[in-house]
Amino acid sequence: MTDGSPVASSSSPAISYRYERKAHVSELDLAHIEQLVRLHPAAFREVFSQRFVNNIYFDTVDFRSLAENIEGDEHRTKYRLRWYGELLGKVARPVLELKIKSNAVGRKANFPVQSFRLELGFAARTVRDAILASDLPPVVHLGVSACEAKLMNRYTRRYYLSACSRFRLTIDRNLEYYRIRPTHNTLIHNIRDRDVVVVELKYDREHDEVAHTISSYFPFLQTKSSKYVRGVHSLWRWHELDL
User: Fold this and answer.
1) Calpha distance 72→130 (Å, rounded)
2) What single DSSP character describes residue 115?
3) Contact at 8 Å (CB) between 225 and 25?
C-alpha cells in the first residue's frame, strides 16, 4: 500500500499503521481525568516519566499542510521537529518526524537531526539549516526545503500502557503555542491553552475492532483537530492564511 508520502514504499509490508484517537477535554480537571485512567478496566499503568515535549511544525508558504488537514485529505504528510526537555538552549537529540496519514490511520517516519542551539531571538532558518545539514534521505531534504518553520508548541506529557500492551494512552497538559516568524523570534506571540487537557489513545489498526471497549469508558468527545491546527487558528488572522 502506498500513502503518497515521500518515504512510502509499496514493497515495505512491515509498515505499521495505527489509529490515534484524541480528545480535547476542558470540562474535567486533570485529577478527574487521571482517576478515570487509573480506574479503567484495561488496567492502564504509567510507563515513562512525565516530561516536556517540544515541537516545531513546518508548512509551505501557503499553508498547504494546514489546508490538507482541515479538508481531511485522505493522504497527507506533516513535517515536525521534536525534542524533549528545555525549550531554549541546546536542542539535544532532536528528531524530524514525518507524520504520514492514510485515510483514518497513520504512521511516523523518524530521522535523527544534529544538535543545535535555539536562543531567544532565533531566526526560523536556524531550525531548517540544522535539519538540512543532517544526514537525511534526499527526498526528505527536498520536502523540508519546500517548507518553513511556522509554529512551535510545548506541553507536559504522561504515558500509559494497557495491561494487554495493545493500547497506549497519553495525557498532555499545560499547552503553549508560539508563532514562528522568519527572524527575531522573541516568543511573545504566543497563547497558553492551560484549561485544555489532550487525551490520546493509540493502537495498531488490527486492534480497531475492540478499541471501542476502551474508548467508550471515557466521557470524552473525539476531535479531529490537531495541535498544529489549533495553534495556527489561535495565532494567525484568517486573511493571513489565505486558504
Assistant:
1) 31
2) -
3) no
69-117 pLDDT, tens per residue? 888 788 899 999 999 999 999 999 999 999 998 877 888 999 999 999 9
Which amino acid type is present at position 176?
Answer: E
- Whose grid coordinates read 480497531? 208
Taken in order 50, 157, 174, 211, the sign of the CA dihedral is negative
d(CA 126, CA 118): 8
**Secondary structure, 3-state, 181-224:** CCCCECCCCEEEECCCEEEEEEEEHHHHHHHHHHHCCCCCCCEC
CA 1: distance to chain centroid?
A: 23
Report which DSSP code applies to 196: -
pLDDT in tens, 133-175: 999 999 999 999 999 999 999 999 999 999 999 999 999 999 9
